[in-house]
Automatic annotation (TrEMBL):
Broad class of enzyme this protein falls into: oxidoreductase
Keywords: Oxidoreductase
Enzyme Commission numbers on file: 1.1.1.-
Protein's name according to its UniProt entry: SDR family NAD(P)-dependent oxidoreductase
Organism of origin: Paenibacillus solisilvae
Coiled coil regions in record: none
GO molecular function: oxidoreductase activity
Family: Belongs to the short-chain dehydrogenases/reductases (SDR) family.
Entries under InterPro entries matching the protein: NAD(P)-bd_dom_sf, SDR_fam
Length: 253
């Protein structure tokens, strides 16, 4: 049984980031044509585009501000013009900021997390779900985090944004399920990425002790979960928050 995304068009926001790059490569390897979204790193987006095209897949790069509905709607217009209607949307982008305590965290940091987690999800749905409804098929996949269940010190802005995102996705799953559109979330743990490999910082014994599998996961393992949810193999899964963190968190029933 293989994951076959042939004939599908997949959009990944924040595609030039550590996890986004691997998601793009993995979706392309599964046969999808891809939309590489970026905000500022055009050079890396172009490199990724060339890499995907060398696989024989179509790939375009699109710049957009994921906190702006107008910008996302402009991105949609470019994608439809150049590739066609999007089948798979992966909301991976998030604004980065310095974590600190609730008492010291700037109000703007809470605002940036709300805009890049909650509003991004809303704007992407408004832009791309109508096309999925027309085809009676589609995949909306949000990248959440294990932090949403940890609620550790200094996580408040990030957790508040991702928990808000979780609410949007659960409600959206019920609203569009009748159109055979699935809406799910992947929640990575502290993941090994290209940056860690270059700096030889893959190991962290303190963190690994709390993980059931006693190791950190990899960017490829996150991308594998995304590819599964993007495929027909996940056709009866919707409204799910799926931790990909080696058992570091375990949602209860």
């Amino acid at each position: 049984m293989n994951i076959d995304l042939s004939g599908k068009i997949a959009l990944v926001t924040g595609a030039t980031g550590e996890l986004g790059r691997v998601m793009i490569r993995t979706l392309a390897k599964c046969g999808a044509d891809v939309v590489i979204h970026y905000r500022s790193n055009e050079a890396r987006a172009l490199e990724l585009q060339q890499e995907v095209q060398s696989m024989g897949r179509r790939a375009i790069i699109v710049e957009a501000d994921i906190t702006s509905q107008d910008s996302i709607m402009n991105m949609k217009a470019k994608v439809v013009e150049q590739l066609g209607a999007v089948d798979i949307v992966v909301a991976n982008a998030v604004v980065q900021y310095q974590w600190t305590s609730v008492l010291e965290q700037a109000a703007e940091d809470y605002r940036s997390q709300f805009e890049s987690c909650v509003l991004q999800s809303v704007f992407l749905a408004k832009a791309f779900v109508p096309g999925m409804i027309e085809k009676r098929a589609g995949r909306m996949i949000g990248i959440n985090t294990e932090c949403s269940m940890q609620n550790f010190e200094t996580q408040s802005a990030y957790v508040s944004g991702k928990r808000g995102m979780d609410g949007v996705y659960r409600v959206l799953a019920k609203e569009v399920g009748g159109h055979q559109i699935t809406v799910n979330q992947v929640a990575p743990g502290w993941t090994i990425s290209e940056r860690d490999r270059k700096s030889n910082s893959e190991r962290n014994e303190g963190y690994e002790k709390s993980v059931a599998l006693k190791r950190r996961g990899t960017d490829q393992e996150i991308a594998n979960a995304v590819a599964f949810l993007a495929s027909d193999l996940s056709s009866f899964i919707t409204g799910a928050y799926i931790p990909v963190c080696g058992g570091n968190i375990m949602p209860s029933i």
